[in-house]
Design brief:
By secondary structure, this protein is mainly α. The chain has helices at about 1-25, 45-60, 80-90, 100-110, 145-155, 190-200, 225-235, 255, 260-270; strands at about 35-40, 170-180, 205, 210.
Length: about 270
């Protein structure tokens, strides 16, 4: 009997030790407060300001550089897009309604399958369907003003005349890169909400989104364990899925998520069997 109580006492002490260590010994991931939505008086902006806004959106909220970059080769480079647009409009494969560069760029953002550059379409479609999502919906959700700013930036960056007019009035625009609320944000209510806010569905098939440029996560829980999933979020270059390139996924999700949110996402993905 004494041996039994000794075993029970040792077990309880061990459980208590690990419970205490997990709650107090492991550093919690406490990210900087999230950025606020800028409210910009568009009517008071100069064109230079508007182009700079477009660049911030292009490299930030729009998640454009995840695919349009010289490393991964997942999407065409856009440094000359303003100059090649006219040629694409004249291509017999073009099936949109744009008549000029500005219209083509707008259409490319909201109806990307109107023209698919050869070699960059969904597999099995003969380059007739683009894997790129409509940036005005889904997890990206750019407003018309934000789309106009991106078009202005693309025209300017490719060395053609900026024909976009700055929309009148004020509306929410890009997320400020460093402006913070001063206090921690509320926790995401669910893994789906967290992944939607982080834009995971822009690249992956997950949580109702149909991204095509990253690994399909529909049944990831049947293939990978929790340790792998956690590592893939915190250090995405640690294990590169076959057929994909490094440096495609943002490496700072560990800074953006609270520890509880990270585990919530890991639980969700592990359950996708």
């Amino acid at each position: 009997m004494r041996q039994f109580f000794s075993v029970v006492a040792f077990t309880l002490l061990t459980i208590g030790f690990f419970a205490g260590f997990s709650n107090f010994g492991i550093p919690q991931i406490e990210p900087a407060p999230p950025p606020k939505e800028e409210k910009i008086a568009l009517g008071a902006m100069t064109m230079e300001d508007f182009i700079a806004l477009g660049e911030r959106i292009f490299k930030g909220k729009g998640t454009c550089t995840l695919c349009h970059n010289p490393v991964g080769g997942r999407a065409p480079l856009l440094d000359q897009i303003g100059k090649v647009a006219a040629k694409r409009l004249a291509d017999p494969r073009y099936k949109g309604e744009a008549r000029d560069v500005e219209g083509y760029l707008h259409e490319s953002l909201v109806k990307p399958s109107a023209y698919v550059v050869k070699g960059f379409g969904k597999k099995g479609t003969g380059d007739t369907v683009s894997p790129m999502p409509d940036v005005s919906g889904g997890s990206i959700g750019l407003s018309e003003a934000e789309i106009a700013a991106v078009i202005a930036y693309l025209q300017s960056a490719s060395g053609v005349e900026v024909t976009v007019e700055i929309p009148a009035g004020a509306e929410p625009a890009a997320k400020a890169e460093k402006e913070t609320a001063g206090e921690g944000r509320p926790l995401y209510a669910s893994a789906e909400e967290a992944m939607r806010e982080l834009g995971c569905g822009a690249c992956h098939k997950v949580a109702g989104e149909q991204g095509e440029v990253g690994p399909d996560l529909t049944h990831i829980g049947a293939k990978r364990d929790r340790a792998y999933l956690r590592r893939a979020i915190l250090d995405p270059n640690a294990d590169i899925a076959e057929g994909f390139e490094p440096d495609q996924m943002p490496p700072d999700y560990g800074e953006q998520l609270y520890a509880k949110e990270l585990e919530m996402i890991v639980d969700y993905l592990a359950g996708l069997k």
